[in-house]
Amino acid sequence: MGHLVAVKERQSSTDEMFEPLKQTIELLRTYEQELPETVFKQLEELPEKWNTMKKMAITVRQQVAPLQANEVGVLRQRCTALELEQQQLWERLRREAPF
């Protein structure tokens, strides 16, 4: 779940990152600054990999949704049981209070 949240939080900033990188590389190229071929290769591959990661996150989120819903139900039952126990303890304290 933490990874899904991280992808969601970084989605807009990462989507906006690729175009400025391309522009920076083009600017360096105009000033005849040579970059390693791996930089160009990564610049081509990374947007595709990021899109694949976003699609995978959506798929995983859909797969996890039923498990989350089930866990929410379990937590609600526990909270209800805790409230009932707390109420019973409060009533017992009022009946048997030492003061």
Automatic annotation (TrEMBL):
Q: Which InterPro entries match?
A: DHC
Provide a GO CC annotation, any one.
dynein complex
- Superkingdom is Eukaryota
Q: Which GO terms describe its biological process?
A: microtubule-based movement
GO molecular function of the protein, one example? dynein light intermediate chain binding
Q: What is this protein called?
A: Dynein heavy chain 9
Which organism's genome codes for this protein? Camelus dromedarius
Traced from the root, the source organism's taxonomic lineage reads: Eukaryota, Metazoa, Chordata, Craniata, Vertebrata
